[in-house]
Amino acid sequence: MSAREEVLARVRHALGGATRDTQVPRTYARERTLADPVGLFCERVADYRARVTRCGADEVAVAVEAALRGTERVVVPRDVPDEWARRVWQRVQDPGTAAGLDRVDAVLTTATVGIAVTGTVVLDHGPGQGRRALTLVPDRHVCVLRADQVVADVPAAVALLDPLRPQTWVSGPSATSDIELSRVEGVHGPRTLHVIVVG
């Protein structure tokens, strides 16, 4: 018996007769409850060096203005409420190309769901979210999320998402580190992420 055959035999023995068709119950992971999922979400978003602001529904425009301070050209996808972007310096249409997006300072979007335990924002590029490139090319991404869109964990988020839609999962600003652990932000996505949690 080769080493490969021996390893596979041990795996088969450990599985106790399970086959590819064996269904493993996954409901256990959906029973997680958190005392304050929105508070934990905000804490985890901040842990990623992203900026987070909590505000009331009547304060969104002011929070957006503060998050976009210092920018000039901002892409705002269709279906983002007009009152949120009324103070944006120069609202521009999606230029349609990566080169055009590179000349844009920021993007303002909504999101589909936020995940408390990971501090992740998920976009499925539906209403208010625009196409994927909008959230990947501009240097600043301001994302507005309602508190009731925050769920406890990844299984709860996946249960809400349509697997046939494109998805972008964002955990903090884009960052990478070299072998000496020198952190560089904005290499393959926005250098600045600002999440506004409403409610």
TrEMBL record:
Pfam families named in the record: LUD_dom (PF02589)
Residue ranges of domain LUD in the record: 101-198
InterPro entries found in the cross-reference section: FTHF_cligase-like_sf, LUD_dom, NagB/RpiA_transferase-like
Protein name: L-lactate dehydrogenase complex protein LldG
Species in which this protein is naturally found: Oryzihumus leptocrescens
Native organism taxonomy: Bacteria, Bacillati, Actinomycetota, Actinomycetes, Micrococcales
